[in-house]
Amino acid sequence: MSASFLAGVTAGYGVALPMGAIGVLIAGLSARTSLRVGAAAGLGAATADGVFAAIAVAGGAAVAGVIAPITVPLRWAAAVVLLGIAVMTARAAFRKPTAVDQRPATPGRAYLGVLGLTLLNPATVVYFAALVLGRGGEGGGPLFVAGVFLASASWQLVIAGGGSLVGRWLTGPRGRLLTALLSSLVIAYLAVRLLLPS
């Protein structure tokens, strides 16, 4: 195996493994809907990681410099979106399902929604840029990006599978209420943490 690919795999796991708001969202989607929807959401997150890795390989230092001045507004935007998701999840937990609410979440919507939300995190491109530039530009390229994507995708699919497994155990109304409320609380907490100084 190529050193670039292995460096990408390592970097991909490094960014994907910490369980943050996106992971909670993916697990919650799988638990409440289906493994297909959760897996699509996970692949949306992995695609964003791959996009960020490609940007870092293509022009890491320049992109990091451009993003630096808007990091705070992007963090605020991500926090607002996450808080909105938390509120909608909590509200849905208390409502009786209607015909409109029973319209199933689709894998396509889950993929695009999580892709867009994950792209609001500019710290990821800085992370990949630091890795690529720290090695003097070596270890970058298409194999690095492929390694990042595959590592991130494999972990996101584990999260989706775990959410789906838990969802089978908690499929009753009480279980759905509990998981929706817990998910919304965790997402809200992570959104607030985005706004606190590191």
UniProtKB/TrEMBL annotation:
InterPro entries for this protein: LeuE-type
Keywords: Cell membrane, Membrane, Transmembrane, Transmembrane helix
Pfam families: LysE
Topology within the bilayer: Multi-pass membrane protein
Major site of localization recorded for this protein: membrane
Ranges annotated as spanning the membrane: 6-29, 50-70, 76-94, 110-131, 143-165, 177-196
Protein location: Cell membrane
Name the UniProt record assigns to this protein: LysE family transporter
